[in-house]
Amino acid sequence: MEWIEIAVTVDGEAAEAVAEVLNRYGHQGVVMEQAGFDLDFWEDEVPPAKQLIVKAYMPADEHLPDKQQQLKDALRYMGSLLAIPAPTFKSLNDTDWADAWKVHYKPLRIGRRVYVRPSWIEIDDAKTDDIVIALDPGMAFGTGTHPSTQLCLMASEDILEAHPGWDTLDLGCGSGILAIAAAKLGAGNILALDTDDIAVEVTKENAAANGVAERIHAQSGSLASLTHAARRFDLALVNILAKVIIQMSGEGLGSIVRPGGVAVFGGIIQDQVDDVEAALRQTGLEPYKRRPLGDWVVVEAKRPQS
Q1: 182: left (phi over 0), alpha (psi -120 to 50) or beta
Q2: What is the number of domains present in the chain?
Q3: Contacts of 121 (CB under 8 A, 6+ apart)
Q4: Which domain holds residue 295?
C-alpha cells in the first residue's frame, strides 16, 4: 500500500493547533520535530526550538482526495487566525511508512536525570541515577520532543527532588509522560486526568510499560471533576494551552493546589506569559519562576500557606 506523509512547518502556538487538526486525519497519531536540528546531537542540553514540523501519515486509498481537501480546508480556516503555510504531501511505499515516523524519535536526555527513549531503541549510556522512560508516539500527545513537555519535565525534576512524596496531578495527561516521570522521580500518589478516553488508555499502557502502573491512577476527568470532589494536590502539572489555563483560572484552578503546594503550567508562548500569570494570580496562585525554551515558556506558581 502507498502512504502519504503530510508535513506543516510552523512556529509558536500554531504547532499545537496544527497537530490537533492532523491528528483527525493521520494514522498512528502525529509526529512533532524541531526543524533544522538533528536529534542525534541532543546530549547535555536542549537547543531552542525556532520552528516545528508537524507530520502525519494517511493511506493512499479511495478516501485520500476527500481527506486531503478537508485537511487543506481546515488549515486554511485556521490560517486566518495563525500563520500557517499550506501542507506538503509526500508519497511513501508500505515499507517506508512503517519506519518513517520512527526516524523522528531518538533517545533524548532532558534536564539532569530524565532520559526518554522509544521502546524500539536500547540505550547503553544511561547513568546509574538516570530516570529512563520508554515511550512511543501514538494517538495521544506527549513524547518529550516538544519544548513545553521538556520544560515541564525539568520543573518536575527540580520540584520533586526537593519534595519527594508529594501527591501529584497530571491534568491533561496525554501520553502520561509527566505522570510517569513524576512516579520515577519520587512523587507520592499520582492522578492522571484527561477528557480524551484514548489518552487515558494510552497513559495506562505507558505506565504499565514503564513499571509504574501501581503508582498512577489514570481516569477520564477535568478540572470540574476535581473541584466538585474537593481534591487537592501538592504538585499540579498542567501542560495544555495558555487560553485553556486562563479559562480554567476563572473556574477554580488554584483551589486544586494545597496551601504550600506548587503548580507547573506549560503550553505557553512568550507573548502570552503576562496574561497567564495575571489569570493565575486571580485564582489564588503566585507565579515565581519562568522557564523559557525558544518561543515557549513554563510558569511555576505557588499557593501561599495562608
Answers
A1: alpha
A2: 2
A3: 105, 106, 107
A4: 142-302
**Nearest-10 crossing angle of helices 242-249, 273-282:** 20
Q: Which residue from 239, 283, 287, 243 is spatially nearest to 262, judged by alpha carbons?
A: 287
Q: Which domain CATH number covers 26?
A: 3.30.70.120
Q: Can you tell me the distance from the alpha carbon of 261 to that of 301, in angstroms, rounded to the nearest whole number? A: 9
Q: Is residue 155 domain-shared with residue 284, that is, in the same domain?
A: yes
E strand spans, 157-256: 168-171, 190-194, 216-220, 233-239
Domain presence at residue 80: yes
Q: CA–CA separation, 67 vs 82, rounded Å?
A: 22
Strands (E), the chain: 3-10, 31-34, 52-59, 88-92, 108-110, 114-117, 131-134, 168-171, 190-194, 216-220, 233-239, 257-269, 286-293, 296-302
The SS3 of residue 218 is strand
Closest CA to 209 of 122, 137, 119: 119
CATH number reported for the structural domain that contains residue 231 in this entry = 3.40.50.150
Contact 286, 260 (CB under 8 A): no
Residue 66: count other Cβ atoms within 10 Å of its Cβ. 9
Q: CB-hemisphere CA count at 13 Å for 166?
A: 28
CA dist 72 and 93 (Å) reads 23
Q: What is the pLDDT of residues 226-270, one digit of tens each?
A: 998 888 999 999 998 899 999 999 999 999 999 999 999 998 989
Q: Which of 240, 280, 289 is nearest to 256 (CA)?
A: 280
The answer as to whether 271 is a domain residue is yes
pLDDT tens-digit map of 34-76: 766 544 333 334 455 567 888 888 888 888 899 899 889 888 8
